Amino acid sequence: MRRSILAALALMPVAFPAMAQDPPRRLALAAPPVAVTVYPEQATVTRRGAMDLPAGDSLVVLSGVPAGVLRDSVTVRGQAGAAVSIGAVELRQASFDRRDVDARRAGLEARLREVEDAIAALDVQISAQAAQLRLIERLSGGFVAAQRQPTPPNEPPPRLSADPAAWRAAWDAVREGTAEAAEATRRLQLDRRTADQRREAIKAELATLGGPPPGSLEIAVSVQAAAPTRLELEVAYQIGGARWLPVYEVRLDSQAGRVALRQEAIVAQTSGEDWADVALTLSTARPSEGTAAPALSPWRIALVDPARLERERAARDGVMGGAPPLARAPAPATAAAEQQAPRQQAQAVAATVQAAGFAVEYVIPGRATVRADGSERRVRVADMAAEATVSAFTVPRLAPRAFLRARFAHAAPAPTLPGAASLHLDGVFVGRAGLPLLRAGEEVSLSFGADDRIRVAHEPQARRRAQEGSLLTGRTSSENFEALITLRSFHARPIEVTVQDQIPVSADAELTVAMQADPAPTARDVDD
């Protein structure tokens, strides 16, 4: 029968029954990450391993723990065939053996000497090739100069000038010698750059010696076994430096009237440890932001006499010739309180409340690997499809074009977080948009760009002015603004088009605005 045990990070060790025995044995536990739950700003890492545990007291040590672990988040669970007790769980700086460090330093210094000797040998060979190139240039240059100099009387011309075959042989010798020396120099310089990189890497590793690896921690678990047994330990902790954000792809089939929404996530982390082949879960919860709603602080206001404030300020600064400060009754709010009230009000507005009202976990199928170098890993979360109502929208006064819109009900079983979405219309990428927080069944309206199958025209007409009445009865002036809006659809079937226009708003009681439209609008005061 297997027995389960659980312990959390303890500040004081647990006292075991007094027993006369040797000091606890230090046992190394190999427990790589097997499962990770990533939140928008941190992650929970679960590591699992097994070991043969002897009877008595032991200290099980899990090394290679990154420095960003939240110290109060470490928990340990275990299962064993015999009775096992878990005592103190300690997160501490990783221990190390100075002799191992000295041996490692000696080995690195020997490798460094070998690399520097190799670099010196390469420099000699590069200098030799450069000397060969200079010699070839001098020899070829001397021959050319000799050909250009006039031949003295009663002396035969240079032998090569009378033999074209000898010229070609000289050209070939110069070309082959130059190419051979240049290629050899190129290979030698490449080998030297590689050796330089090895030398710098060895120097960097030498600079880190002398103590424990910076930022490296270990988890030490005190255990006591009644008899030798096989112990399976599961260690979990929370760590910063991890994040995920949702991204979406929305595809509209305008002919079938259907929308396909694909939800994906971008995961990245710089926690200090690689997550190789782990079970990955994405959570919308935000544990770093607390669990309680924000509390409103009292917002006090009061009438203040500026002259009195000036006198009080002058009294504090000693401007009134040492006169004692004016006595004043307790005010409902001091200047400091007035300055503090707006800051308190700003803190009460939590922008993340709308996006964090639901905690949803997405269990990613299969296994995933996320490196600790900050590189982004894209994983698919879900695919959804819904019936869509396709319509068009136009504002002819501002743009003589119609824009295609699709309205559909969010078909996901759980809310989805806000994120960027790439939009595709009939298989063609048309742009990007931001999706808000979407709840299950909530209606969504997205614009898929200009609809070239609808022609829109906006033609302002002549302005007309008129006056009525007289000086005795009162005179009324009127001015008419008219525009003709024309739409024509080249769609294969009817499509609903929303036309939006505006009329002026009167800011004077003596000025009235009336509207006449044919056909009459179906809605007014849209979007205020």
Low-pLDDT stretches are 9-16, 320-357
- How many strand elements? 24
Please tell me what the overall shape is. extended
Radius of gyration: 41 Å
Computed structural class? alpha+beta
- Helical amount among residues, as a percent range? 10-25%
Query: What percentage of the residues does DSSP assign to strands (E)?
Result: 35-45%
Profile the largest sheet: 8 strands, mixed
* Overall pLDDT score: 80
The end-to-end distance, rounded to whole angstroms, is 71 Å
Total helices: the number is 4
Helix-strand pattern, N to C?
EEEEEEEHHEEEEEHHEEEEEEEEEEEE
Describe this structure in words.
The protein has 4 helices and 24 strands. It has helices spanning 98-148, 164-208, 306-317, 335-348, and strands at 3-8, 25-28, 33-38, 42-53, 56-65, 75-80, 84-93, 217-225, 229-240, 242-253, 258-269, 275-283, 361-363, 368-370, 377-395, 399-409, 419-425, 428-435, 443-450, 454-460, 464-470, 474-480, 483-489, 496-499. The strands form 5 sheets. Strands 1, 3, 4, 6, 9, 12, 13 and 14 form an 8-stranded mixed beta sheet that branches. Strands 10, 11, 15, 16, 17, 18, 19 and 24 form an 8-stranded mixed beta sheet that branches. A hairpin with a 2-residue loop joins strand 17 and strand 18 (428-435). The two termini are 71 Å apart. The model is unreliable at 9-16 and 320-357 (pLDDT under 50).
